[in-house]
Each structure stands twice: as structure tokens, then as C-alpha cells.
Design a protein that fits this description.
Blueprint: H1 27-32, H2 38-46, E1 61-70, E2 78-81, H3 85-89, H4 91-94, E3 97-100, E4 104-114, E5 118-129, E6 132-144, E7 151-154, E8 158-159, E9 168-177, E10 183-194
Parallel strand pairs: 3-10
Antiparallel strand pairs: 1-2, 1-4, 4-7, 4-8, 5-6, 5-9, 9-10
């Protein structure tokens, strides 16, 4: 019997009733708003809303760098390189990360934002074992302006399951989507629960 396929519905972000996404504006448009307010212009510049790119309307872009796992009982974080391109990232599904049963751990992502402000980014993660969904997490990441330095977001700590029944390999699909429904990251990886790291 074939394992059930993951549906796209599982990876859709939740919607807040009554919330409406605001009109998208380019950095050039935002930099021109309230030009006479000097303190507001300084604040905008600190967010990366500089007028020096006025007239250049490039699409917003989130550049994934890494997904990582850290734990107080782990000597150094374990990282998945997301800069390898679609084919390179596929190896993360074939080579699972080991998580010690019962250990507290946190998942985090590292990314860069280019060209435009990205608002309301959410991280969605669906975990499956033997084709059955065992967990789904959705976490608000936030809104980010473009900058050359990478952003890092670490999610809430959780405890790995323990016991003989929990040990084994789990398949994960992770997605980052913004308020506009733009999918910035979508990849699969795997982890296995074992007695030791």
C-alpha cells in the first residue's frame, strides 16, 4: 500500500479573520512618504528604506541560507545548507539529522532579504512518519527590510519524543510564506530520533 501524499492544504498558513493585507509599496515609494519629517526619514534609513534605489522596482526576495537545530545537550548546532539549490537541498531528506530522544531542542533559520520589505513571514513545518502527519507547527517570523546581513530566527524550544515507539525516521516539509502568499522557501528534510546525538 502506497503512503499517503502530503497535501498542499497542510502547508497553507492560517488566516486571521478580518485581517486584510495592506497595499504593497516599493522601497522608493516608502522613502518618499513624509519627506518633510526628518526624524521619520532617519528611522526609515535605519530600516534600509533608502531613496538611493528609487526608480528600481525589483521583486522582493528571501534568500535561504540555513536551517539549524540547537540544544543545550548538543556540543554545536547541526545545520542544513540551503544555499545548495533545489538539487543539493534534496540530500537533506536522504541524510537525516539525529536528535537524542527526550532532549530539548530548537529549530532556527537563517536568511537574507533583498530588494523589498517582506511582511508577515511565517514558518510552517509538517512532520510525517510512515506517511502519517504527526505534527504541524506554524510560527510567525515577522517582517523584514532588505539588508546585506543575514537574519536569524530561532523558534520555541520543544522536547523530542522518547521511548522505543518514538525512535525512527521522520520526514519534514518546511515552508516560509509571507502575507501576500509568496512562498520564499519550500524544502524537505528528515530527522531520526535515537538514543544519542
Amino acid at each position: 500500500m502506497a503512503a499517503p501524499r502530503q497535501t498542499e492544504d497542510e502547508l497553507l498558513p492560517s488566516q486571521t479573520e478580518g485581517y486584510k493585507v495592506g497595499q504593497e509599496k516599493t522601497l522608493a515609494e516608502l522613502s518618499q512618504l513624509d519627506k518633510e519629517d526628518e526624524s521619520l526619514q532617519r528611522w526609515k534609513a535605519s530600516l534600509g528604506l533608502n531613496a538611493d534605489i528609487a526608480g528600481v522596482a525589483r521583486p522582493k526576495k528571501v534568500v535561504p541560507i540555513a536551517l539549524f537545530l540547537e540544544s543545550p545537550t548538543l556540543q554545536s548546532p547541526v545545520s542544513l545548507d540551503l544555499t545548495l539549490g533545489p538539487e543539493g537541498v534534496k540530500k537533506h531528506k536522504k541524510d537525516p539529522i539525529t536528535i537524542k530522544e527526550g532532549a530539548d531542542f530548537s529549530v532556527g533559520i537563517k536568511f537574507r532579504v533583498e530588494n523589498q520589505i517582506v511582511s508577515g513571514m511565517k514558518y510552517i513545518q509538517v512532520v510525517k512518519r510512515a506517511g502519517m502527519t504527526v505534527d504541524k507547527d506554524e510560527t510567525m517570523i515577522g517582517s523584514f527590510s532588505p539588508q546585506s546581513d543575514a537574519y536569524t530566527k530561532i523558534f520555541a524550544s520543544e522536547e523530542a519524543p522518547s521511548g522505543m515507539m518514538a525512535r525512527g525516521t521522520y520526514n519534514v516539509r518546511s515552508r516560509v510564506v509571507d502575507d501576500d502568499g509568496t512562498i520564499h522557501m519550500d524544502f524537505e528534510w528528515a530527522f531520526k530520533i535515537a538514543k544519542e546525538w
